[in-house]
Amino acid sequence: MKIRILLVDDHQIVLKGISFFLSMQTDFELVGEAHNGQEAVELVGELQPDIVLMDLNMPIMDGIEASKLIGERYPGVKVLVLTSFSDRSHIVPALQTGAIGYMLKEVEPDQLVEAIRSAYKGNIQLHPDISNTIVMQLTPNAAETKVLPSRQELDALTPRELEVLEQLTKGHSNKEIAQSLVIAEKTVKTHVSSILSKLSLSDRTQAALFAVHLFQPSE
């Protein structure tokens, strides 16, 4: 089964360049192109893609608003942001819409391909150059207490909480985590609350981003 992709970008040259490269992947199917957020939302409804590769700065409707609407109307569709903006004022709002990841246009082609494949499986994707920055910014008092999250912070978590935390990096809901770990959904909710409390995080998005860094292989 091929991964169905909708490309969204208001720059024709960029759009065509990405389209050409992705069309070379045998497991990808480019189902459409949109030039602004409003057109993207409409095409998602018509085409039902698996992945929306979303630019942010566009006319009529920007990528953040479009991602929010897609998340509300078509929860099964995953939005992977692909933009030139690496600042917090763009990154945080984009991820808060429920986007599965945030990549920069300077990403190597092979990395983008793998990010799309991994996002399709439900794994959160962050561009290597911004992942550490995002974790730091989303962790309360990070600037005062540490530069990057440490694996030592996992010591307070139980083995089951570690399993739940790792499931969060895949974007799974409480129901999906319960099914995967063969436990009650109510138990998952309790574990998530405990994780947030022990790591001093405010929501599961922060926990997922925190875990992406902690569970990523050391270089």
UniProtKB/TrEMBL annotation:
Report what the protein is called: LuxR family two component transcriptional regulator
What are the protein's GO molecular function terms? DNA binding
UniProt keywords, alphabetically: DNA-binding, Phosphoprotein, Transcription, Transcription regulation
Residue span, HTH luxR-type domain = 150-215
Q: Which residues carry this modification: 4-aspartylphosphate?
A: 55
> Which GO biological process entries does UniProt record here?
phosphorelay signal transduction system; regulation of DNA-templated transcription
Q: Which domain of life is it from?
A: Bacteria
Print the organism lineage.
Bacteria, Bacillati, Bacillota, Bacilli, Bacillales
- SMART domains, alphabetically? HTH_LUXR, REC
InterPro entries to which the protein is assigned, alphabetical: CheY-like_superfamily, NreC/VraR/RcsB-like_REC, Sig_transdc_resp-reg_C-effctor, Sig_transdc_resp-reg_receiver, Tscrpt_reg_LuxR_C, WalR-like
Q: Which organism is it from?
A: Cohnella lupini
Record's PROSITE patterns?
HTH_LUXR_1, HTH_LUXR_2, RESPONSE_REGULATORY
Domain (Response regulatory) ranges: 4-120
